[in-house]
Amino acid sequence: MTATSMAKATATGGRPPVIAICDVHKSFGENQVLKGIDLEVQAGEVVCVIGPSGSGKSTLLRCVNLLEQPTSGTVHVEGIEVTDPDVDIDAVRRRIGMVFQQFNLFPHLTVMDNLTIAQRRVLGRKKDEAERIARRNLERVGLADRGDAYPAKLSGGQQQRVAIARSLSMDPDLMLFDEPTSALDPELVGDVLAVMRGLAAEGMTMLVVTHEMSFAREVASRVVFMDGGVVVEDGHPDQVIGNPQHARTRTFLSRVLDPAAASLGEVPGAPAGSAGSAGSMQGEVAPQVGFERGPGLP
Ligand SMILES: Nc1ncnc2c1ncn2[C@@H]1O[C@H](COP(=O)(O)OP(=O)(O)OP(=O)(O)O)[C@@H](O)[C@H]1O
Ligand SMILES: [Mg+2]
């Protein structure tokens, strides 16, 4: 654990951060994807990671449960070093729920069986107990009556909510989400975000890669903007989304918040000092200025 995380562990009553990523680098061959990432997530925090395609967001998320092995640096989950070659990674992974863009449900199993299979095989729960827990979690995601359905009979949004309920049925201590709504039709996004909002309100620790800026703005404890394998900004959503300090963040936000203007080479401007609600985020993004590099950037 780093000196900083030790200090924070003391500040949080002796509990280490739920996730502590320290100087993580990851290369695929010659391609350096992560170039020294430091990031901590405390219990109950919702940290949203935003950034352009290819900036390394998914790779970073996958380093947390060692779906990718960092080239160097350390990752701790609840005080356990997952990058230690001797770690019992299966035991650590049982504490981590992960929800991907693709729902990865078993198509030949009913919703109920999708929710109970890992509970029974991995956690050794009896059928009755697994089904009781599954029903409770289907209720949590608003699908109490769909246990007998097969995934193909459900909408994408419903399938994603089943995937979330499946993760929750394993009683995770933290949840990783990698663009959970980006494969969905726009009208189905809201229900999935509502479920995630509910989880956040219940105090679930969440690390979420997302392009949903209103969600990040409203729900995140912190927003992390990544670009080119580094963390460019990390702070309160009002700061990072509402008043970004770096031109790279401003450029990204202007593209995300107004893709049409960005593709025309026009970047939305805002009167100096303008502020508003999440609904007027676009106006809050400062006008694009000359490219500048912040401290700590290559
Ligand atoms: N398993 C892999 N093997 C080789 N290269 C990879 C692998 N996974 C990711 N990369 C490369 O790493 C870089 C970062 O990819 P990553 O998926 O982490 O980006 P991202 O920020 O999640 O992008 P997106 O927003 O498009 O999902 C890309 O150049 C990608 O091609
Ligand atoms: Mg990705």
UniProtKB/TrEMBL annotation:
Q: Biased-composition ranges for Low complexity?
A: 268-280
UniProt cross-references to InterPro entries, sorted A to Z: AAA+_ATPase, ABC_ATPase_HisP-typ, ABC_transporter-like_ATP-bd, ABC_transporter-like_CS, MetN_ABC_transporter-like, P-loop_NTPase
Q: Where in the cell is it found?
A: Cell membrane
Q: Which SMART domains match?
A: AAA
Membrane topology for this entry? Peripheral membrane protein
Q: Where is the signal peptide?
A: none
Instruction: Map out region (Disordered) in residue numbers.
Output: 264-298
SUPFAM superfamilies recorded for this chain? P-loop containing nucleoside triphosphate hydrolases
Where does the ABC transporter domain lie?
19-253
Q: Transmembrane region positions? A: none
Pfam families in the cross-refs? ABC_tran (PF00005)
Query: What's the family?
Result: Belongs to the ABC transporter superfamily.
Name of this chain's protein: Amino acid ABC transporter ATP-binding protein
Record the organism.
Answer: Motilibacter deserti
